[in-house]
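Entry for the shared binder. Reason: the reviewer on the internal report wants the predicted structure included alongside the sequence.
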Amino acid sequence: MPLTLRLSLTYLLLTLVGLLLLGAGLVTLTGSYLASQRAQALAAQVEIYAALIGELADSPQALQGLAAGGVGRELLPPGTAARLFSTDGALLSGDPSLGPFPSRPALALVRPSFPLPASQAADRSYAARAISSGGHVIGVVELSLSTAEDARLLDSLRALTLQAALIAGVAMALSSLLVARSIARPILRQSRRAERLACEFDTNLRRPGQPQRDEIRQLAASLDALEGGLRAYTARIDELEQSRSRFYRSVSHDLRTPLTAISAVLENLIDSSPAEQQPALTTLDAETHRLARLVDDLLRPPDDSHLRLPRRSYVRLAPLADEICTLLSGRARRAGLTLSCAADGEIGVSGDHDRLKQALLNLLDNAMRVTPPGGSVDLIVTREKDIARLSVADSGPGVSPALREQIWERGVRGNSPGSSGLGLPIVREIATNHSGVAYLDDRHSPGARFVIELPLAPPEDSPL
């Protein structure tokens, strides 16, 4: 059964049951109230009538005379019937259609010589009182009132309650249908959405041709399909990760093999070359080893998020800056750029020389690519309290606000041509592994200024 129909029937049933219970309670309370009012009225009337008869008759014989004349009946309200009985239960006066014997209330007040039955109609209310004169009981007066009018009133109230319940039931059926649809509609939407997602995750899945009659079951089936699609999607991701890892290992091996051969040839050349060629060959050998490490960094799997620092030592930043500027001076000259390096005295940090060199080369490489001919690129090393600050500033176009945070993510390329999207993330990783930070100083204009801040090496790390 659809959820909409179940909710509608539930609301309708609860409404009808509630209204019927309320109507039954109202009819019962009204009937009790009318019976109580009728009993109080009869009790007051019979009290007055008995006192009046007791004043007019002082003996049973006088009571019989008054009964024959019907004294005091004109004082009774319309619809009230009066009967007089002697002390032994004999009917002295009254409507014969009510029976020859006293009612139960009157029968309790007489003293018959033999048991008498009670004459009491089911559709009347009774009240009785003893008639006393001079301290002696001379008879019993009984008053009764028809309950037909109250019964008609209660019947009308019952009919009105049923009519109200039917009208409210129709209104509740319509409103509950709207409410149930408003509840079921989002469930159906989520079911269809789960089915679409499941088909997107697993193209082999097919949407069911016939929807379930129960929205909850349909949602459960859709979620089961979505779970299956997610499992298939996760399996495909794992397979792609394994393929990518194999690709990284294969490419890294293919690139490392020729670099190893080049390094071996350079070592042989260093041993056999003239003295004047030794510096150039030594530089080539060092750069070959650094290139091998760069290959390892660029091709390491993305889940390997930490750069390795094979060795830590005291690194003087001023000689490092001069070494880098010397290495890039020819490129700057050919590009028509002014490359300057400045360092404030003896500044040293504890870290890996090659990694720090790699970070500065990445920053300078980016700066030289974006700076137009005639511009300038500056490498400045300063000291502030216990922090060493390495700044690379250029006079290029700068970094747009939309890219200032994204450029530190792997694979995000800036506006410079030839960017791989790996340089700045590696710079930040190197700074982080040296207990430092790397950031873009957005106060520098025009151009851009990238800053690496590293803790200064404590005195015990400095050389003797």
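Summary line for the report: The chain is about 55% helix and 15% strand.
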